[in-house]
Structure formats: C-alpha cells, structure tokens
Amino acid sequence: MRHQLKTDIGTLLDKVRASTPLVHHITNYVTVNDCANMTLAIGASPVMADSIHEVRDMVSIAAALVINTGTLNEATVAAMHAAAKQANAKGIPLVLDPVGAGATPYRTETVRQLLQQARFSVIRGNLSEIRVLAGLDEKTRGVDATAVFDGNALQQETRIFIENTARKLNTTLAVTGAVDIVSDGKRTCFIENGRPEMARVTGTGCMCSSLVGAFLSVTDDAFFAALAGVLCMGIAGEIAYGNLQPQEGNASYRNRIIDAAYHLTAARLAGRARLTG
After folding, report:
1. Range of 251's domain?
2. Binding site annotation covers 274?
3. What stretches pass through the bilayer (predicted)?
4. Considering the entire predicted model, what is its pTM?
C-alpha cells in the first residue's frame, strides 16, 4: 500500500507540472515571496491578491485557494472571508494555515470565524494550532508550537486526537512537526521526512501549505493532496540540507529548499519517502 502511495504521489506531481494550475493565496507578508516561489517550483502558478475588490473574481478563476493568518489586519480578514465564501460557492478547494492560532484572542477568533463560515478541504498547522482549533486550551508563541509531537511515545494518542479532530472539523488535517501526520478521520499516515533545521527558516510551514494547495488543484482527494504536499516539503528539506556548503546558513537553506522542490521527480519522491501508518 505504501509503495502504491509513493507511486501515486509521483503521478500527482507530474499532473501539477503538466497543467500549471492557478493557486490563489491570501497569505502573510513575511513569507509571501517564498510561497510564490515554492508554488512555481512545484509547477503551479501563484497569485497573491488580497484586495476585497478583486478576491472574489480571482478565486473564481483559480484552481485552489490558500488562506494564511500569519499577519492579520481588518482588510485582509474581510478579504479572507469573502474569498472563502466564494470558493465554497464555486466548489474550489481551500487550504487554511491557522498561523499562531492561540497566540492572541483576535487571531484565534479570526480562525474560528473562518471555520464557522466556510468549509476547508485541508487545514495545515502545527500541533499547538490544531489543539486550539479543537477547542483545547493551548498557548502558542506567535508561530511557535509549545506542544511537541513525539513520534514514538505519543504516536497512538496523537493519532486518535488528530483523527477525531479531522472528523469534528469535517476536513483533512496535515499536522507538521518532528514527525508529520495527515488524516481525514478515516485514513491516517505518518511522514518521517524532513530536517529539524527547517524550523530555523521562516516560512517553511507557509510554503508547505502552498504545496498542498498546488496538489489540491489537480485532485479531488484532499487526503492525498495533503500527503503529497507535506511529503514534498520534507524531502525538499532533506535534499537542501545535504546540499548546504559549510559557509552557508539559514538564508541559503531557504533557497536550496525551493531549488530542491523545483528538481523533485516522481522517482526521487518514491526513493526517499518514509511513510508509516
């Protein structure tokens, strides 16, 4: 089964590159350029429109919408709501990246209102953010997680929690950390790719959400799209780390991650993927 998943993800990558789908982002200004370049690297086409005057029109011609709550203000929040409603009305898949949910009441309430007013195909976040969405009393420090997912001791407990939350929110959850987990409440997969150094680059989570959006553009299976996006990000992080030169630091690492995604192939994905579940 895992071998077939690896093969199918490679096929999905080829499909993205053959069709160059338009992925609309309403994202944060810290990582907007990285998200655009990662979307291009995987073979899709990014647009980063966030004006209330055009988001409905832009969503209508897009193949997927990614909403990221990293840098909020009244104008972008209004645009997020309008875009999400339009996407639901048009049957366009949505990704939510609830950056920093739990850090402030405004941020948490914004995410909760988005969840109340629209259905998201995939929610990608760290474990702390997902715990907030589940209604648990979790505190985060901006985009940092205080809860750490231990892939061994807590794997079964975490699996049950994520599966229950996915069913509760009627979505696919992609929870990234030391070990990543993707679940739609019925199917669950752990991904053991990636590097701890990725946490020292601002925006790797945001870029991962962009990858999920790109894959959602070419499949109706949100679980499969989330799995593909998270896996590609982890493998790109591994390859980039292996290519770092002694004098290079996190800025070079960021660029090498994007370059690694650009050079991903179906064969490379199949050869490096570490999936369990």
Report:
1. 2-276
2. no
3. none
4. 0.93
